[in-house]
Amino acid sequence: MELDSTLRQVMLSYQRSEITEHHIYERxxxxxKGDNRAILARIAADEARHARLWQTVTHSEVRPDQLRILWYxxxxxxxGFTFAIKLMxxxxxxxxxxxxxxxxxxxxxxxxxKEEQDHExxxxxxxxxxxxxxxxxxxxxxxxxxxxxxxxxxxxxxxLQNTHLIALTGSITGIAAALSMGASxxxxxxxxxGTKNPVQAALYTGGVYFxxxxxxxxxxLLFANFYLCLALTLVIALLIIAFFNYYIAVVQEExxxxxFLEMALLSMLVAGFSFFVGFFLRQVxxxxx
Length: 289
Hints:
single chain, elongated, 289 residues, 2 domains
């Protein structure tokens, strides 16, 4: 009886997961238009059917996880529906391993397992989100902003040793670079004559660069100790690198650590070198602020 009770709890958890994902896909389908909406609606219908199948076995009705529905809906609104869906499907990979153990007891579980593994996976490959066509532009913006501005702020920290001056100089440098990067990306994309919109490419590159600049300069606007500000800026840079590379790892289904370590090492090396350049130039020019 204990085994039966345990097995029933496992099936109820699957049933709740399926009905929850039905509502998530249904809500995402209402948020978007075109072919993507039809694909998500089909997956939502599949999830509802899976939930009904489990209900015929458990003979119980379960409520969806409202918090999970809200979380993935919010994530889709902020970071895009592709990221939200692929992150959710990552969690399902572990759950599918348990389906195999249930097939011997519940033959219908094999149908659910195959559909989750094959049919829905094939449908997800058909999704086409506009912003994913501009990941290259976003990578360009983030990479340049992190490498250039962490280096500039590190050098300015020792050269000026005044947080307000560092923030002012860093902001001017960063904003000018963001505009320059956006303009360069516009001209580059236009010259390629591909499918990407030059204006959108420019906005993604310049916009991501500008946001990165604001985050890196922020400590110098909040604190007076310039060494503390530099340390916080480097921490923020690492967090930006981690977040951005995790986003790419999820949506493009790639590895995380290699890209993260490469980008982090490059940014920190440039910052370290610039820090000593700032100290050297301060001594050479005898600057006292």
